[in-house]
Design brief:
Helices cover 4% and strands 58% of the residues. By secondary structure, the protein is mostly beta strands. The strands form two sheets. The chain has an eight-stranded antiparallel barrel with strand order 4-7-8-10-11-12-13-14. A three-stranded antiparallel sheet has the order 1-2-3, with no helix packed on it. The two termini are 26 Å apart.
Length: 191
């Protein structure tokens, strides 16, 4: 049974967005990451320039997402580190100006949560990456726009994408951890 409002609908007892095509609103979205630093803490960062499209299908399991992230927009609040991350040691923004993600499947993962499997491309290397996605709801903005929100979490091994630069520490361990945790807050507007 499906119950529909203008922004959301209930399918098999689960609230999902209304079917349609939605454009990511970069000013109200956050694509962040964290990685171990010096084996004792985590460094967090974000990408400021993100575009994307979310297509919510009549059958929610046929929905899809495509995102493009400008690699030069990386921001860890340290310009020296950001410059190193933009270099050929890491993102190589001169030759690889974008990171892309394209979903392949969507499956239920519990009440209001979805497992989105997709292909992430970084530095020309494409690998599968799973995201755990939660639908946060829908709302009309004061200007008549229809908006939906999601949070997503995932993890990847940066070395799988050729991001292998590191430095050994005198005390053991390495400067930069291999595991990168992804933290995404996304708001999108119906087109």
């Amino acid at each position: 049974m499906t119950t529909i409002t203008s922004l959301t609908r209930t399918v098999d007892g689960v609230e999902v967005p209304a079917a349609g095509t939605y454009a990511l609103d970069a000013s109200h979205s956050h694509v962040g990451f964290s990685v171990r630093h010096l084996m004792v803490s985590k460094t967090k960062g974000r990408f400021a320039d993100v575009t994307g499209t979310v297509v919510i299908a009549e059958d929610p399991l046929a929905s899809s997402v495509e995102v493009s992230i400008a690699t030069a927009s990386i921001d860890t609040r340290d310009e020296t580190r950001d410059g190193h991350l933009r270099s050929s040691d890491f993102l190589d923004v001169e030759h690889h100006p974008a990171i892309t993600y394209r979903s392949r499947t969507v499956t239920p993962a519990g009440s209001g949560r979805w497992a989105v499997e997709g292909d992430l491309t970084v530095r020309g290397v494409t690998r599968p990456v799973a995201l755990e996605v939660t639908f946060e709801g829908g709302a009309k903005d004061p200007w008549g726009g229809e908006r939906i929100g999601f949070t997503a979490r995932g993890e990847l091994d940066r070395e799988d994408f050729g991001l292998t630069w590191n430095q050994a520490l005198e005390t053991g361990g390495v400067l930069v951890g291999k595991a990168v945790k992804l933290e995404i807050e996304a708001e999108a507007v119906r087109q």
